[in-house]
Amino acid sequence: RCEIFGDCGKVTIGNEFNSTTTVSDCLGEHWPRLKNSYNVRFRDAFSNELNAFADTVLQNDPWPIERDDVISVQRVAAAAKRSFETKQIVYL
Q1: Region 63-92: what's the mean pLDDT?
Q2: Which helix (H) or strand (E) holds 29?
Q3: What backbone torsions phi and psi does residue 64 show, to the nearest 5 degrees?
Q4: Which helix or strand (DSSP H or E) is residue 79 part of?
Q5: Which of 18, 47, 21 is nearest to 34 (CA)?
Q6: So what's the pLDDT on residue 25?
Q7: What is the pLDDT of residues 9-64, one digit of tens each?
Q8: Which helix (H) or strand (E) holds 6?
């Protein structure tokens, strides 16, 4: 699960569960099991990344991601880490 907050809203990326039922009791919330394992959920993404890398190296295809996008993702990851470590909001 991931939540990204912006000035005018947020984006939530959730997981698929075996059921839509969540039980809350004195011990907390109890969620159903995830529908698929980590490997199954991200199999296509990993395969696409490896294929793009191979095409770039072996066939000299252009890298499908712009340099500035890579730098932006790294900044977001570093800010998330810093926020976790300091328990503070990190603005970009």
Answers
A1: 94
A2: strand 28-30
A3: -75, 0
A4: helix 67-86
A5: 18
A6: 95
A7: 999 988 888 898 999 999 999 989 888 888 888 899 999 999 999 999 999 999 88
A8: strand 2-6
Q: Which of 47, 46, 37 lies closest to 16 in space, CA to CA?
A: 37
What's the distance, Cα to Cα, between the start and end of the chain in Å? 21
Q: How far apart are CA 43 and CA 34, in angstroms?
A: 15
Q: Which two tokens stand for residue 32?
A: 């159903």
Q: What is the DSSP string of 36-67?
A: S-HHHHHHHHHHHHHHHHHHHHHH-PPPSS-H
Under DSSP, the state recorded for 88 is: S
Tokens of 61: 């295809």
The beta-carbon contacts of 11-19 under 8 Å, at least 24 apart in sequence, are: 15/41, 16/41
In the DSSP assignment, the letter for residue 11 is E
Distance CA 10, CA 3 (A): 7
Q: Check residue 50 and give its pLDDT.
A: 95
